[in-house]
Fold:
Amino acid sequence: MEHPISASGKMAPTVEGGQSVPGSGAAPGGGSSSAIVIGSGFGGLALAIRLQSAGIATTVVEARDRPGGRAYVWNRDGFTFDAGPTVITDPDCLKELWALSGSRIEDDVDLLPVQPFYRLLWNDGTRFEYTNDDALLNAEIARLNPADVDGYARFLEYSKGVYEEGYLKLGAVPFLDFASMLKAAPALAKYQAWQSVYSKVASFVKDDRLRQAFSFHTLLVGGNPMKTSSIYALIHRLEKLGGVWFARGGTNALVSGMVALFERLGGKLLLGEKVIQITPSGQRVSGVVTHTGRVLNADMVCSNGDLVHTYGLIKASDYAAKKVRRLKRKKFSPSLFVVHFGLKGTFPGIAHHSILFSDRYGPLIDDIYKHGKLAADPSLYLHHPSVTDPSMAPEGHSTFYALAPVPHMGTAPVDWEVEGQRYRDVVLGRVRDMLIPDLDERLVTCFHYTPQDFADDLGAHLGSAFSLEPLLTQSAWFRGHNRDDHYSNLYFVGAGTHPGAGIPGVVGSAMATVYA
Structure:
């Protein structure tokens, strides 16, 4: 069995019985290797599990007091508030991490199915149940426009094709050189990847509400539906096949399960240790230094952190400085404004996941991506986990968060210390007007999270919530590489790398990094 580190110190897939088996086995000749993973988000933990499953002594170094990165958690006044992400799709990509060591995800995590996947709501009272129940979904489509039932069926066939080409075949390809991009070009051309998700949806369905219903998903991974490649239509196939799930106890319970698996395998997690330097040594890196003065050395360093921030940690390097300048010229995804709130009472009529649409779909997206404006009428994603798992709130109470996509700080240099309270009222006002008229009287606890918090807590460039915007010109080889082009043992994983943001994306990026 070949160890997943080649003689050059680069990762390589292990081989067992002629089959590629990422993250499995021990070093040849009884040798050993070591790795440091910066950041304990889903991508970092997935990579750490793969490395540790392969017998590579792996240490995860996390700046915050809890693991999870963007999947942080707060416990306040008896309520459990996930920072996000909260939509779990493709559970198989998670189950595989446990299977690497002959374990079962069920030993550490209880995944609960969510139905409907989303409830979509418009200001005029229109309601749409988005599900993978074909009969129910077709009935919902027919209620809005009977002629679009056949169009949606054709769209699903399209999404099946891009799922097979873009996710199954290319999702774990590291794209380290332009030649690998050229090999993927025929598939991208076949499915007209230069078209946007919205334009592709619009070519199949005519009702404007249905066009919104089948294109909004890209916003959940930082993409503009009007600009993001139609390849991202694969999300529909992904959800249809794998469903939408929630981890009992919250998304951070999934993080805890991954940490438990990692530590059982012998991995080490260091909390409260902020990396302030990656130490270069010629065309390699030797390790990291933390803010406490701790020096950690390893055969390889892998970063789950923000790309711009990570390269900034390589001091006195002309290469790294140039890399930072180039990255800053790229387009970054918007940020998020999230209001967490706990209410008295229960709300069985409010779905686990709801989308509250503004009347201005296209113009609102332009405000976010082009004009840098905070909208008075934001579209919201409303998360209501206690309807699925009552343990997320005290008895007789409910946990919510309302998320509004907002411009990042490069296009909207807002003073969030001043603006935060005002915009919290705007967001809660939308929820009150559309769903909970007596919200103010029921409010027990409330706090918000801003683009400035993304920058301060996570080192996110411009406060971007999803790293690089998922444009065709910033995908695959054009995205952050899973292995650095100069430092041969410096690796990257997470939203800024291929294939991109979202739990399946960053977990998939860990496999791409193993192959890098």
The longest strand covers residues 335-344.
